[in-house]
Design brief:
The protein has three domains: 97 residues, Malate/L-lactate/L-sulpholactate dehydrogenase, four-helix barrel (Hypothetical Oxidoreductase Yiak, Chain: A, domain 1); 163 residues, Ribosomal Protein S8, Chain: A, domain 1 (2-Layer Sandwich); 32 residues, no CATH class. 41% of the residues lie in helices and 20% in strands. Strands 2-3-4-12-5-8-9 form a seven-stranded mixed beta sheet, sandwiched between helices. Strands 1-13 form a two-stranded antiparallel ribbon. A hairpin with a 6-residue loop joins strand 6 and strand 7. It is built from twelve helices and 13 strands. The chain is α+β, with helices and mostly antiparallel strands. It is globular and about 55 Å long.
Amino acid sequence: MSTPKLLTIPADKMHKTLKRILLQHQFPKKRAEECAMTFTQNSVDGIYTHGINRFPRFIQYVRNGYVIPDAKPTIVHRFGGIEQWNGNLGAGPSNAIFATERAMKLAQKHGIGCVALANTNHWMRGGAYGWQAAKAGFAFIGWTNTTANMPAWGATNPKLGNNPLVFAAPYGDEAIVLDMAMSQYSFGAMELAVMKNEKLSVVGGYDKDGNLTDEPDKILESWRSLPVGFWKGAGLSFLLDVLAATLANGLATHEITQKPAEMASSQIFIALDLSKLSNFSSISSTIDAIIEDYKTSVPIKEQGHVSYPSERVLATRLKNSQQGIPVLENVWKEVTGFL
């Protein structure tokens, strides 16, 4: 099969194009700016599956009424450093930006802040909010539940969400960010591999006959993605759903699955103000020492390179900022078709 054609789109052009489309779909200016920037920055960082590639589906959700352009979060309950909010089916990226900012404000007052957000929409790339908090000097933990797209360990039918989890810490002028789904590959990554006619680098799930496979189309057909760490990842997914639904007083995975699309998710945003810690002045040197030791790892391959979480993102960000963002031609055609 032929390799799909790639275009190179400057970040500024992508941002302006997406913002224009959002404004045409009745997004208020601030929310159009936030969402356009989120989709663009995710693409600049190389997370195309939750950047430009996801944008057409986002617009379709808006047209279907699953995402309400002018909806904003409203407070439901607060006690100390914990708050519960209703996302009112607003745009996931804007709701998540707000919740992260609110968690940081709570952390400045209490040392730690937790915002539990119910009835919200797909936040796209959870790591974006880890970067947001960490670059402001906060440690961050966040997660979301999803529609059922992964079987429990030992089962064949999907009952678990792949419930992405984010950890982030400040590091110099940047951050160390881990953003991971509970499935070996996110569904966005598998969809991208199908679009590019590529196999996965390791097995990512089962085909419909129960055989482990590295062919993403077969996994998407069977809905039997492989949990990270096998039974451990399945157990972690289960608990993330329990905590998201109970803390936010929102929907759980089995309830989201009954919706016409992945919508009305429950999300958790936790920020920690590191400046409140007794060892704040030595945190930077502690992280330096951890990375220095980590970098003494012996690569399997002679010219191999061992990277810590988000290290490769920085290199991709620099390259795409300077040279433009690689975009599949058919994806860009679909995006610009909304104009």
